[in-house]
Amino acid sequence: PSPLSQAFPLPSLPRKQPTVLVVCGPAQNGAIGLVCARHLRIFDYEPTIFYPKRSPDPLYRDFTTQCEKMDIPFLSYLPTEVQLINDAYNAVVDAVLGAEAELGEGRGPCAGILATLKHVRIPIVSLDVPSGWDVEAGSSSGISPDVLVSLMAPKQCARRFLGRQHFVAGRFVPYDVQKKFELNPPEYPGTECVVPL
């Protein structure tokens, strides 16, 4: 299994509210979203995936197939009526754009998705970098998540994160990478793969 399958802080999602909408973009962050949806399903949450622009990458296709085999439903469209999302789900996982995205992508094909997500009232959990944010400077034009899950290590933009919880999922980072980039990872107690910052 992918180490990223552990990259979601399940205690931040109460089990009495199990419905989660996972919104996936076409690149790496979208693939992480697919893995996140699988992980949520394993722990008895009820994820639904919106993945409008599927990647041709064989690995991402495999992640999609795995989600389908786990009977995770895929939406054919994202409702623009925000109240429908608020009523149907208890949280949204933002896996639209990530650290690899160009800031301009938030104005391209993902613009409609981001416009909708900016207006939901349910909690948003962003994976690695909130969609629409510049990875270095942050951005006021992107979404404002309640929870940020930084992968490997917090990015520069995390300094501008004002949500209620920030986690890091980086226990899987090899020691040579930690040394090369001078990462100073937190202590991960027991078998935890995610820790709050």
TrEMBL record:
Domain of life: Eukaryota
GO molecular function: NAD(P)HX epimerase activity
Organism: Asarcornis scutulata
GO CC terms of this entry: mitochondrion
Domain YjeF N-terminal: 1-185
InterPro entries from the UniProt entry: YjeF_N_dom, YjeF_N_dom_sf, YJEFN_prot_NAXE-like
Name the UniProt record assigns to this protein: ApoA-I-binding protein 2
Pfam families linked: YjeF_N (PF03853)
